[in-house]
Amino acid sequence: MNFDSMMTTATATLTVFGMKILGAIVAWFVGRWLIRIAVRMVWHGLGRQHVDPTLQRYIGTIVNVALTIVLIVAVLGYFGVETTSFAALIAAVGIASGAAWSGLLANVAAGAFLIILRPFKVGDHVKAAGLEGTVRDIGLFATTIMTADNVTSFIGNNKIFSDTIQNFSISPHRRVERTAQLAHNVNVRDAIERLKDAIAKIPNVQKDPAPVVEIVDFNSRGPVLAVRPNTPPEHYWQVYFDTNRAISDTFGDAGYPVPEEHVHMRSAAA
């Protein structure tokens, strides 16, 4: 075969292949650009319908993944890959790796149930899978929670859905529970009245239900008071710390003695 003819054929083949690669690259970037526009349109459309932000993000993620898969199949079809064979290959791989993907698919299913049943939404303060913090995002596979010490944590949806979920943001108020130790010789009624007055002056403490200050226990040092004000969930920690300060200041101003352990020992002769 003529060398010049071979070079001409190779050049033509490489040129066509190079043009296809260039076309595929252009198609990929244009396709991704169009997908981003489509996802934004979906978000804006759902926002105009006042759809919950959690559901907006979830639907946007599904649309993004689905359109990306369509784009990949289209690019492969541009190169002459049989899309029906590609679909069959995906199905075969899916069946073969079903066990390995079972946990991932369980997270997707659990994420759907979290959206439908709505035990919490983005912005709620929750305790889920043993972790407490504010929900930042509910994704296809995992939920993002920001803890109080500003650490972003990602928890698999299935782990959250299969465990106990505590939502601190649903109720209009949350009860702060503290205790106050008294000495044996302190007038309990006087201590209760002083504490009730001090707790009522704390900002964001609700009047209904009213704060509770009552005897909850006795120990070797004296009576123990339960101090329980109520507050909106967003002010919980402010009221928590202010209650501790009110107990300390109230007892100090009243001149109550420091509770001490009383141990009664009997002599050997007795």
Order of helices and strands: HHHHEEEEHEEEHEEEH
Q: Distance between the terminal alpha carbons, to the nearest Å?
A: 123 Å
Please state the structural category.
Answer: alpha+beta
Give the spatial strand order of the biggest sheet: 4-3-2-1-5
Our Rg estimate from Cα atoms comes to 33 Å
Number of strands: 10
Integer average pLDDT:
83
Largest sheet: 5 strands, antiparallel
Strands, helices and their partners?
Layout: H1 3-48, H2 53-78, H3 83-96, H4 98-117, E1 125-128, E2 131-138, E3 142-147, E4 152-156, H5 157-161, E5 165-167, E6 174-175, E7 178-181, H6 188-200, E8 212-219, E9 222-228, E10 230-231, H7 236-254
Antiparallel strand pairs: 1-2, 1-5, 2-3, 3-4, 6-10, 7-9, 8-9
Helix pairs in contact: 1-2, 6-7
Short note summarizing the structure:
With 270 residues, this protein is of the alpha+beta class.
Structure description:
This protein has 270 residues and is of the alpha+beta class. The protein is built from seven helices and ten strands. The strands form three sheets. The chain has a five-stranded antiparallel β-sheet with strand order 4-3-2-1-5. A three-stranded antiparallel β-sheet has the order 7-9-8, covered by helices on one side. A hairpin with a 3-residue loop joins β2 and β3. The mean pLDDT is 83.
Properties at a glance:
270 residues, alpha+beta, three-stranded antiparallel β-sheet, 7 helices
